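Q: Hi! First time doing this. I have a protein sequence and I read that you can turn it into a structure. Is that right? Here it is:
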Amino acid sequence: MAIVSLDSAPIKRLMQRAREKNLVLYAIYDRNMSAIMMMDEGHSVLSPIQPETIAQRSSHKEDLSDEGQVYI
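A: Yes, that's right. Below is the predicted 3D structure, encoded as structure tokens:
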């Protein structure tokens, strides 16, 4: 996982392209954006959760997959 500033020009360009294609999922719930996740399908997910927390939670997804759902 790469941690990149949300104010960097490449990130801003990625976000603009995703907005133009309607591929942005806003999961920030009126909170400040802390991370952008780029999905395999081309979607961008804006998240208020710190990248380190997302990485830590996703490493435990095998434990949660027994219940049929994965929470990140």
